[in-house]
Structure formats: structure tokens, C-alpha cells
Amino acid sequence: MGDTEQPNEPDSKKPKLQSTDQSSARCQFFVQRKKRYCKMTVGNGKVYCGEHEPTNAGNATDPATSDRIPCPFDPKHTISAAKKEKHMKICNARPPAEQQPYIVPEINSTSDVDEVPGDAASNVADVKLSDMPPDRLIALIAKINQLYDGSVEALLKEQSPRHEILAQELTLEHYGPQTLKHLTQSSALLGLLETYECLANDTAYVEFGAGKGQVAYWLARIVETQLENCKVLLVDRASHRHKKDNKIETREIVQRVRADIADLELGQLNLLESSRKIVGIGKHLCGGATDLALRCLVRSGKGESGVSRVKGCLFALCCHHRCEWRTFAGKSFLLANGIEREDFECIVRMVSWAVCGTGRSRERQANGPPDEESKQDRCGLTRTEREAVGRKCKRVLDAARLHYMEQHGYDGQLRYYVTSEITPENVCLVCVNK
Q1: Closest alpha carbon to 126 in 346, 273, 333, 290
Q2: Strand pairing of 310-318 and 427-433?
Q3: pLDDT, tens digit (0-9, with 9 covering 90-100), for 103-121
Q4: If 0-12 CB within 10 Å is exposed, 13-18 middle and 19+ buried, where does residue 415 land?
């Protein structure tokens, strides 16, 4: 949900309205992004579902549809004005009743003093690739190719072990391909933790951006059956339904914390006090959230003795287009290789070339001209060449993160942990404390 199109917006391409038979009445809101009507059922006498009913401002003269107002906590969804007080007590977007000691606003968002020399963090206007002169874009692509071929490509190796905890689960026939895809990724990540000796006693495992907690669930199964004195901590800024970690039987080993990684100070969490080591993990931790998690581990890993408690971390990397210069952890690597802030803003736009596909519908792809693949853009690149440039941009950003961790005493590797057929975002960052 959360679509912003107006329900009465004229559109010549809309299909005919759906049947209003009350036995199967469907919402008449046309979702422009999906090019179809909403499939939610509606109540008797209603035209729209609760999510898409017009607000007071849009339809105040109709008492049947004027009861909806934007939620005070999150205007992306609407609520019944009559039930406002009740909703505000249970809304997932409501702020915590009191500030927890492990919440320190923006603690992980700012760069260390030695990360950005001089005024490299000054404001730069948003850059659109379409507005860049072709010669300048070609020069940046050449710089990326040179950096990738010279030092980044050698960092990438294939390493895709599987953990035995998921061996039987992956043989079940009733799972669909989407579920099997995620289970395979989880098995590979846990296999890498085992390979790099991060599955050990007296360890607290922190899953950043835990979502519904699938990885944490299987980690907890390993802890229950194979390890001693270990904890599993799930961190996510949202509250999710159908959480997998609710099925963990040994409740004392698991805790879920609702917090933005930008504000999280791990050293203040009680669950971690009894653990000698900390291991961070994230499965597809989107964009800048990976940088926040890396900085969180580096800054919060030290105990009273001054020795880091962080044994290592493992993050599956994705959504590089959501990286931000302000929070990016690898700025020093980029600057050392002649990539300034303005170049960075272009790179985080070019990464989409690797995974965005053709931009055409399946029908257009099937019926398109045979020479479509050889068609060149304004920089003289074919679609295949653009995809290659996008992948190189991703790997340069990943190498910058690896360099950040090496600066803070970690041995780091970039690994293809599954094949590209399972997911095009198939690279993970593995770091082990020296």
C-alpha cells in the first residue's frame, strides 16, 4: 500500500471499473504504478478500501468517505478520524514512550575526523546523469574501469559454502522458488560464518535490518543445538508482522530491538553484556544502512579494556543507489583514488544500470527489433556494456567499505556467495578482526 495516486485522477488507459457485486466487491482505486485496480475488498456501500478512501480534504461533502485522515505519526497511511486515539496507541510508526539508553541520535551517521580531509563533505547539488555532458560521463566511466581493473577486481572471489542446519529445509518440495531463493542465501551466509570461524561460544550475533528475522531464526537454531552462552539480537527500525523469530523456543537467547542503526550504540544493550565477542550480520542491508552498521560495529565494539569485542561481520550487499555521501564509510578510499563527492553522486546513479534490466515490458522485449542489444546510448554504450559499468560501480563502492574496515584492524574479503541466477545482488563483505 502507501500509493499516492488520487483515486479519481483521470487516466485514459484505465480499464473498466471492477464489478461492484457485494459478494466480491473490490476497491476502485487505480494503482498507477501497477497499472491495475487495488485488489482489496471493501465494506458494504463502500467504493474504496480503508487504505485508499479519500481523506477529509479530498471529499468532505460525502459522509461515507470523509472519515479518513492521514496518520499523525506516518502520513503515508490513513486512519479513521473516529478511531484516531485508539490507532495512535497501536500504530507501528509511533515513537517509543521513553528514550532508551542505547539510542543516541545520529551517533553512527557522521564521519570520523580522519575519514574526510578538508572540505570534502561540502554540499553538492543533486546530479542527474541525463544532465551531464557525455564527455564528462565518459571520463568518469573510464576512471571507474581503470580503478576496477587495477585493484578492485582482484578482491572478488567465489565462495559459496552451505550450512548443514538448512540442508533438509532446502529439499522440501512445497517451497516455491522465491522461498528457496532466500533459504539458499541464508544457508550460504551461515556457511560463510562457519568457514571464517565466527560461529563460536560466548558470542552475541547482531542481525542488522533484521526484517522478519529469517537469518536470525536459523542462527538461533544453531545456537540452541551447537553453541553455548550465545545470544541473538535483531535490530530493525520497523515493526513487522509474522516475525520468524517468534518461533524460537529458547526465548532467553533472543531479543528484538526497534531502533534505527544510525542511532544505535551497541555497548549500551544489556543482552550483549555477558558475551565476550560480537558478530554482525545482515542479509541485503540496503544501501547506506550497511555503512551505518559498519560504523556502529567499529565504534561500539570496544569494552572497558579498550580491546574490540567485535569478532567480525558479514553483510550481503545491495541497493547501492541508496548510499549517501554523508554516511558512506569508504570516503577516504574514493578520495584517494580521485573520486570526489560529485563523482560519487553520479556513481550511485550508475549502479542501477547493473540490475534495472531493459526498462521495457516483456511484450516489447519479445517483439522488439533483433538489433536492440546493439543499440548505443549517448555515451556509445550498449545495454550489455552499461550493465557491466553498473556492476563495476557497485564493486568500487564495496571495495571502499572493505578499505574502511581494514583501516580499523579487520581482514576483509569480497565474496560471490551465491550465483547471479539466484540474485544479481550476490556479493557479500566478510570481515574478521585481526
Answers
A1: 346
A2: antiparallel
A3: 888 999 877 655 555 444 4
A4: buried
